[in-house]
Amino acid sequence: MESFLRFVDKLSEYCGKACAWLIVLLTFALFYESIARYLFNAPTIWAYDLSYMLYAVIFLMGAGYVLSEDRHVKVDVLSYYFSPRMKAIIYIFLYLLLFFPAIGILFVKGIQNAAFSWAMREVSATGLWRPPLYPLKTVLPVAMGILFLQGVAQFIRSIYIAMGKGGNKWSLK
Fold first, then answer.
1. What does the alpha-carbon distance between residue 115 and residue 22 come to, in Å, rounded to a whole number?
2. Of 61, 123, 128, 170, which is most buried, counting CB atoms within 10 Å of its CB?
3. DSSP structural state of residue 80
């Protein structure tokens, strides 16, 4: 079990940190577009499409890492006062009620959407560049798969904590 948790944590960390480097590329592309547009009156045909594609990859592929680090936005006004065991019980309930069904739906629909996009060789219709969209649409099911695995790891940790077996190696970060 510990090896599974370590593997999932490392996978999420690798994906999150690797995709974080795309922020540098996104920043450069937007900087280049701003200079080209406002100083030389020569906007690019690719900056808009590239910016939303890079942002989507950064956002989606970083979700598992953010979950592994327990950094998602949450309202913890009440849970701040709960014991770790009570928090774990609430997390178990919420994973079963909300997280797994929502991520499962996004995963299945993402696969369907990506398969359709690959079959049609879908391209962007927003600009002159017309880049292919099917690689981007493949990111959603891949990212949801990684997020689902990280959710399973966090769910297992919550079970161990709720059972009173949660030491440091099982703690939710």
1. 25
2. 61
3. G
Q: How many residues does the chain have?
A: 173
Comparing C-alpha atoms, which of 16, 22, 31 is closest to residue 147?
16
d(CA 122, CA 114): 10
Q: Taking each helix axis from N to C terminus, what angle separates 47-61 and 134-162, rounded to the nearest 10 degrees?
A: 20
CB–CB of 114/132 below 8 Å? Answer: no
Overall domain count for the chain = 1
3-state secondary structure (DSSP) of residue 132: strand
pTM equals: 0.92
Is the CA virtual torsion 117, 134, 66, 55 positive or negative?
A: negative
* Angstrom distance (rounded) from CA 139 to CA 28: 22
Sign of dihedral through CA atoms 159, 5, 154, 141? negative
91-118 b/e (C-beta count within 10 Å ≥ 16 → b): bbeebeeebeeebeebbeebbebbeebe
DSSP H or E stretch at residue 172 = none
Residue 143 is part of which domain span?
2-170
Cα distance between residue 58 and residue 105, in whole Å: 21
User: Rounded to whole angstroms, how far apart are CA atoms 111 and 98?
Assistant: 20
